[in-house]
Every structure is written in structure tokens, then in C-alpha cells.
Amino acid sequence: MNSAMSSDIVGSSPAFQRVRNAARLVAATDASVLLMGEPGSGRATLAREIHALSRWRQCRFLAFTCAGAPEGALADCLAGMGAGGVPGADARSAAVMESECLAGDCSNGSGPVAGTLYLDEVGELTPAGQARLYHALAAQAPAGPAPRIVAATAMNLGEEVSAGRFRRDLHLRLCVVPLEVPPLRDRVLDVPALTAHFLAAAASRHGLAAPRLNAGAERLFRRHHWPGNLRELANLCERLTILFPGGRIAPENLPREMIAGEPGPEGVGGIRLPPQGIDLNGLEAELIRQALALASGNKSRAARLLGLTRDTLLYRIQKHLIAA
Question: For the stretch 124-149, what's the b/e string if a residue is b when 16 or more beta carbons lie within 10 angstroms of its beta carbon?
Fold first, then answer.
């Protein structure tokens, strides 16, 4: 198996590392995966990575958008992936599908396999679509060409099941391994690396020199709530690359809502106190450890990441008995 994550997977924050490590483990199996998280948080990229790290990585990866899909499109899609239970369908719904197929051996010793089927926003399936999907998955022959299912949803499917809007039996089939994909506001430590990645990608795509952020702009990037998650960050980086190629980005070059620093809906600065409370000293110590790790032990840089002076950081390192 290919052990390397793709260049599209960027991030070293603890919240992202947890889901990244879990993706590595599940990729080695054929278990169905349910990716839970907000739109734009990178669920599709993680689905492709699970496929790329699986033993069927040379087979077909097909993404199907469940939201707004026309009647019959899912049946066509399942037929195209080799799933059973959909006689007469012929995989022609290109408007809601995209496929990646790499040449190679797609056999498991008993015949061909279909690769990975990614179902985006599976909670948006109509009752008829849910029934078709359930019966197709239930009809798969163990030795036949059956796709590995990776589904994604922004909904709480457990609540949808309780409300009678989503089939319990289908939920059980899809949610063998649930993975929570964190929103960007929970990955603040990853924002600098992701910004550099998206700026470089946009510059390469448009044949331009990538701009750079000054210290003030960097602070605003870290403070922003990012309601659109990675998609919002990528779009902004592309816009800045086009408008300021090779330039230096200052706060006045950024969108008004970033400069205003409006808090997100979750609370001040996107932070929400959980009902059970927190250990503030423990949280401070953990943030210091993360900043030191991100700064490779450089205390001056770690202090800047935390908005502290170097002397204040040194005092707090001693206070929490942090080995540094």
C-alpha cells in the first residue's frame, strides 16, 4: 500500500491529525466510512485519500452528489460501479457524477471490483433514493464487483433517523466507521500552512508569482472564523494571487468582514465554552505545547503564534513545567 498522504492533505494540528490517522487505518480495510463535517471542510479530499491509500487505489473513484440528484441518477451510478439491485440502469448521469479511474489491476482474485463510491451529502437523498441505495448495497454479492462506500454529510444522521427522515438500516450500513472532519476554525494552527499551500497552488494554476502575507494579514487569517472552511480560504487565496501577484498582502487588501473581525455564530472569536466547562490551566498548557511544536521549539516564534511576548511565554512555560 502507498503509505504517503497526497500533497492535498495539509495540516498538523491535533484535531486534524486525529482524523488523518483514523483515515489511514480505515483505508486498509473495505469498511464503509461516514465522513461527518461542515461543507468545505475537506471531506471529499479525505475520501479521495482513503481511496488512494486503499488496496483498490488503481480502481475507479466515483463521486456522486446526492443533493438535487434527479430520479434514477443514483441507480445509474450504482450500476456503473457494479453494485447490484439496479437492473436496467446504465451509468449515464454525468451531471451529478465525476469519475477518476487509474489503469491497473482491479481484481481481488475472484473478479473485478468497482473501486470507491463517494456519496456527497448522503443525508439529502429522497426516501426513494435511500431505499434504492439500501437495496443495492444489501444485494451485493460478497465475491462480486462491489464498490467501497465513503459517504459524507453535514447533517446529524442519528437525529434524522430518530425523526424518521433517514432509514435506520441504511445508516447502519453507511456508518461502520464514522470520522468527524473538523471545521477550519478548530484548526487555527493549520491556517498558515494551508494558506501557503493554496497561494502556491493558485500561483501555479494561473502562471503567476504567489503573494505573501505581512504580519498583520497573518493575524487576521488566524483570527477569522472561516464559515466557508477550506473552500473559503482557497477562494480567497486565489483572489489574492490574481489581484496581487508577487505582492505583499496587508490587512487593507483583505475582505471587510476579516478586517472587522466579526465573531462567528459559535461565540467570541469562534470559541464556545462547553456546558461541562474546561480546565483553563490545562488548556493554556496544551496551547503552549502546540505552539512550541509548530515553531519547532523556537520560543520567539511560538510567542508570536500565541500573541505573547517571549518573556511572558517563558514565564508560562515554567509555570506549567513544560519541557522545552
Answer: bbeeebbebbbbbbeebeeebbbbbb
Task: For residue range 113-172, list pLDDT tens digits in order.
Answer: 468 999 999 999 999 999 999 988 887 655 455 788 999 999 999 999 999 999 999 999
- In contact, 243 and 279? CB cutoff 8 Å: no
Number of alpha helices (DSSP H) and beta strands (DSSP E) in the chain = 13, 8
> What is the Cα–Cα distance from 148 to 26, expressed in whole angstroms?
11
Neighbours of 244 (CB within 10 A): 17
Sign of torsion over alpha carbons 19, 22, 26, 31 = negative
Task: Report how far residue 130's alpha carbon sits from residue 167's, in angstroms, rounded to the nearest whole number.
Answer: 7
With DSSP H G I counted as helix, E B as strand and the rest as coil, what are the percentages for the chain, rounded to 5?
A: 45, 10, 40
285, exposed or middle or buried, with CB in 10 Å at 0-12, 13-18, 19+?
Answer: middle
Per-residue model confidence as pLDDT tens digits over 37-63: 999 999 999 999 999 999 888 888 889
Cα 4 from chain centre: 17
Question: 75 with 89: CB under 8 angstroms?
Answer: yes
Indicate the helix (H) or strand (E) that contains 134.
helix 127-138
DSSP state of 5: P
Question: Running DSSP on this structure, what letter comes out for residue 107?
Answer: B
185 CB-near residues (< 8 Å, 6+ apart): 225, 226, 264, 266, 270
pTM over 0.85: no
What are the cell numbers at 312?
Answer: 511572558
